[in-house]
TrEMBL record:
Residues 143-372 form the Sigma-54 factor interaction domain. It holds the Pfam family Response_reg. The keyword Phosphoprotein applies. This is DNA-binding transcriptional response regulator, NtrC family, contains REC, AAA-type ATPase, and a Fis-type DNA-binding domains.
Length: 450
C-alpha cells in the first residue's frame, strides 16, 4: 500500500477531497481528476497501481453510460490496471455489468472508509502476488509476453538460469536474445558479478584474440599498454558471446581451447590466467545450419550448448505483438512528450497482420517513428510504416547507383542500404563488411530512416 499510486476520477469535488484525505497517509500518491476526458493523458504521464472511477458522470458524451465507456478506454490502454467503480446506491445492475466488462470491484456511495481501504489493499496485494509469480514480470529486464510460446521460453529461462550450464540462445535477428541473456545472468547465482557482452561476429581476426584474451604492452604494433581481455573481465560472472555463428573456423579453434583449458593466455604473455565464467552464446543461425561441419565445429557446439533456448519470431507470438507495441508506444510517448495513448482498430489489425522480418526491433523502430510523426492521441493504420530495409531483404533487391556528386552523407546512406541488401538484411554481416559495430549500424539505419 505504502508504495502505491491511486488515481481517482469523479466529477464530484467532495468525493475527490474525501478520498484524498482518506488515502493520503496510506499510499505514496493520490492523483485526483474531475474530468474523465483527461484519463488518456494522465495514463500517458502517470503509472497508477489502481484506479477509482465514478460510474455516473454527468454525461456530455452520448455513450449510454459514461462510467462504462471510460472503463473500456482504461482497459484498452492498460489492460492489467485494476479499476474499482464508484457507483450510486440503486445502480447495482450497472456495477455488475462493469465487473463483466473488466472492472476489478465496485464500492457503493456513500461507502464505509474501512470497506474502501479493504477493497484497495486486497486488489493491490493480488497484483503483487501476480507480479511475483509471473515469470515475464519477475525479470526486471522486461521481456514482455504472455503467449504460450513466450511463457514456455520464460519458464525454461527460470529453470536453467540458476544452474551454471552453458546456454546457447537461438533466434532470428531482433527477437530478444540479448534480453534473454541478460535475464539468465540476473537470475543466476552470479548476478552480483560482472555480465560482459562481446559481439564476436563483428570482430576481425586480429581483434578477436586481443579483445577476448587480452594483451601485454608491445605484443603487437598498436599495443601501447596492457589490456585485460573480456574473459578475464567476466571472471566470476557471465560472458555473453553474441553472433557466435559468424566466427571463423580459426576463431572457433581458439575459443574451444580456452573453454577446454579454462584459462586464457593474453597475447605477448606466457602466464595463463585461470577463468571461471558462465558462458551464454547467441546466434541467428539455426542450430541445424550451425551443425554443418564446414561452418562450425561440432565439438565447440557441444561445449557452448549444454542447453539451447529458442526465442520465437515475433510473428508467432499472437497478441504479444500488441502488448509489446503498447509498451513501446508508452515508452516513446513519454520520451517525446506526446499525448498518444493507444492504437485504433485499424492500426491494431495492421500490427497483428504484419510478418516482422526484423522482429521486435523492427516493431520498436516502427512505433518510435510513428510516435514522432503522429499528432493525435490515437495512432491509426496510416501512421504505421514498416521498414523498407526489412522488406527488401525479403525480396530480390536492386543495387542503388552511387550518385555522381560526392556528398558524403548521401554516399554513406546508399552504401549502407546496398551492403545491408547484399547480406539479405543480416545486420551482423553488413556491420562487419562496413567495419562498424552493429549498434553503430542500427543507429545509422534509424538516422537514414532505412
Ligand atoms: N519481449 C520483449 N519485450 C520488450 N522488448 C523486447 C522484447 N524482445 C525484444 N525487445 C527489445 O527489442 C530490441 C531487440 O532485442 P535484442 O537486442 O535483445 O534482440 P536480439 O535477438 O539480441 O537481436 P540481434 O539478433 O540483432 O542481436 C531491444 O530493444 C529489446 O529491448
Amino acid at each position: 500500500m505504502k508504495n502505491s499510486r491511486i488515481l481517482i476520477i469523479d466529477d464530484d469535488p467532495d468525493v475527490l477531497t474525501a478520498v484524498r484525505l482518506l488515502l493520503k497517509q496510506q499510499v505514496d500518491k493520490v492523483i485526483t481528476e474531475h474530468n474523465p476526458e483527461q484519463i488518456p493523458s494522465i495514463l500517458a504521464k502517470e503509472t497508477p497501481d489502481l484506479v477509482l472511477l465514478d460510474m455516473n458522470f454527468k454525461s456530455t458524451l452520448n455513450t449510454g453510460n459514461e462510467g462504462l465507456y471510460w472503463l473500456s478506454r482504461i482497459k484498452a490502454i492498460k489492460p492489467d490496471l485494476p479499476v474499482v467503480m464508484i457507483t450510486a446506491y440503486g445502480a447495482i445492475d450497472l456495477a455488475v455489468t462493469s465487473l463483466k466488462q473488466g472492472a476489478a470491484d465496485f464500492v457503493v456511495k456513500p461507502w464505509q472508509n474501512e470497506q474502501l481501504i479493504g477493497v484497495i489493499t486486497g486488489l493491490l496485494s493480488k497484483k503483487d502476488r501476480k507480479r511475483a509469480t509471473n515469470p515475464a514480470k519477475s525479470m526486471d529486464s522486461e521481456f514482455i509476453g504472455q503467449s504460450e510460446v513466450v511463457l514456455d521460453l520464460l519458464y525454461k529461462v527460470n529453470k536453467i538460469a540458476p544452474t551454471d550450464a552453458n546456454i546457447l540462445v537461438l533466434g532470428e535477428n531482433g527477437t530478444g536474445k540479448d534480453l534473454i541473456a541478460t535475464a539468465i545472468h540476473k537470475q543466476s547465482a552470479r548476478s552480483d558479478r560482472p555480465f560482459i557482452k562481446v559481439d564476436v561476429g563483428a570482430l576481425t581476426e586480429t581483434l578477436f584474440e586481443s579483445e577476448l584474451f587480452g594483451h601485454k604492452k608491445g605484443a603487437f604494433t598498436d599495443a601501447r599498454e596492457d589490456r585485460v581481455g573480456r574473459f578475464e573481465a567476466a571472471n566470476g560472472g557471465t560472458l555473453f558471446l553474441d553472433e557466435i555463428g559468424n566466427i571463423s573456423l580459426q576463431q572457433q579453434a581458439k575459443l574451444l581451447s580456452v573453454l577446454q583449458n579454462r584459462q586464457v593466455i593474453p597475447l605477448g604473455s606466457n602466464t595463463p590466467i585461470p577463468i571461471d565464467i558462465r558462458l551464454v552464446c547467441a546466434t541467428n543461425v539455426p542450430l541445424a545450419d550451425l551443425a554443418n561441419e564446414n561452418r562450425f565445429r561440432k565439438d565447440l557446439i557441444y561445449r557452448i550448448n549444454t542447453v539451447d533456448l529458442q526465442v520465437p519470431p515475433l510473428r508467432e507470438r499472437g497478441d504479444d505483438i500488441l502488448r509489446i507495441a503498447r509498451y513501446f508506444l508508452q515508452k516513446y510517448a513519454e520520451k517525446y512528450r506526446k499525448a498518444i495513448v493507444d492504437f485504433d482498430q485499424g492500426a491494431a489489425q495492421k500490427l497483428l497482420r504484419y510478418h516482422y522480418p526484423g522482429n521486435v526491433r523492427e516493431l520498436q523502430y516502427s512505433i518510435e517513428r510513428a510516435v514522432i510523426m503522429a499528432d493525435g492521441e490515437i495512432l491509426g493504420a496510416e501512421d504505421l510504416i514498416f521498414s523498407a530495409i526489412e522488406q527488401t531483404s525479403q525480396s530480390q533487391s536492386v543495387q542503388r547507383q552511387l550518385p555522381e556528386e560526392h556528398n558524403l552523407v548521401e554516399l554513406e546512406r546508399i552504401t549502407i542500404a546496398n551492403v545491408v541488401e547484399k547480406h539479405g538484411g543480416n545486420i551482423s554481416k553488413a556491420a562487419k563488411e562496413l567495419g562498424i559495430t552493429r549498434t553503430a549500424l542500427y543507429r545509422r539505419l534509424s538516422k537514414y530512416d532505412l
